[in-house]
Specification:
The protein has a single domain, classed as Fumarylacetoacetase-like, C-terminal domain (Fumarylacetoacetate hydrolase, domain 2, Alpha-Beta Complex). The strands form two sheets. Strands 1, 2, 3, 5, 6, 7, 8, 11 and 12 form a nine-stranded mixed β-sheet that branches. A five-stranded mixed β-sheet has the order 4-14-13-9-10, with no helix packed on it. By secondary structure, the chain is an alpha+beta fold. It is built from nine helices and 14 strands. About 20% of the residues lie in helices and about 30% in strands.
Length: about 250
């Protein structure tokens, strides 16, 4: 157990059962609060790929502030989990994210001081049903049970000197499926923290996702996946078909 985890487990708010209720034991052991925020459109290539759609209603312009979404507690799963694809769906889109784990309360934090508020980093897999409405996706695409898989261990912030220069590799069934980087984002790690905490407070144990890159691969039932972010433990999982009520009774 590292010093951060020991501190988090000793913090009274995280021992509150109302805070930890519903968290998989493996995640509770990391001192996570159970609150995970995702960020849309933080990859310039992804924004460019939307074309003129960002200038048409209801958006009318590219976003000027971070566009956030929430992965509620029912979506959180530990590394190695099997994620069920709902019946009638073809595949999940696998978003590979650098998870920023807050170590101390962050409110209106200047970018120059933002990294000092982080305890460390996790690899995070955000599996979503493919959808066309990018900035306002229906909840049913984003909040499927177990669809947010978090790394099994926290890499301390001190062990990652430059979180904006990490290679990201995604594999499906052992084959390369995506190569990306945390570099060149619309908002760097520190700027993202500054812009988000300008309008909301992040608490210890909260996780803020840096954002997925253009070209997230599809993963179908029976396929395994692996996310590698330089300097962090790899994250793996499997997608399975949902068991129907008829099959369960058989």
């Amino acid at each position: 157990m590292n010093e951060y985890t020991a501190h988090m487990l000793a913090t009274s708010v995280l021992l509150n059962p109302l805070v930890q209720a519903g968290l998989p034991p493996a995640l509770a052991g990391l001192g996570l609060s159970g609150t995970v925020y995702g960020v849309l459109a933080n990859d310039p290539a992804l924004v460019a790929g939307l074309g003129d759609a960002v200038n048409r209603p209801p958006y009318k312009a590219p976003p000027q502030a971070p566009v956030l979404y929430v992965k509620p507690r029912n979506t959180l799963a530990a590394a190695g989990s099997r994620v069920e694809l709902p019946a009638g769906e073809d595949a999940y889109e696998l978003g590979a994210h650098l998870g920023l784990v807050v170590g101390r309360t962050a409110c209106r934090v200047p970018a120059a001081q933002a990294l000092s508020h982080l305890a460390g980093y996790l690899a995070v897999a955000d599996l979503s049903l493919p959808h066309a409405s990018y900035y306002r996706p229906s909840l049913r695409f984003k909040v499927r049970d177990g669809s947010c898989v978090l790394g099994a261990s926290l890499t301390p912030a001190s062990a990652v000197p430059d979180p904006d220069a990490l290679a990201v590799r995604v594999g499906v069934d052992g084959q390369p499926a995506q190569t990306a980087s945390t570099a060149g984002r619309v908002r760097s790690v520190s700027q993202l923290l500054a812009d988000v905490t300008a309008f909301m407070t992040l608490r210890p144990g909260d996780v803020l996702l840096l954002g997925a890159s253009l070209g997230a691969p599809l993963v179908r039932p029976g396929q395994s996946w692996r996310i590698e972010i330089a300097g962090l433990p790899a994250l793996e999982g499997v997608v399975t078909a949902q068991v129907t009520a008829t099959e369960a009774r058989a």
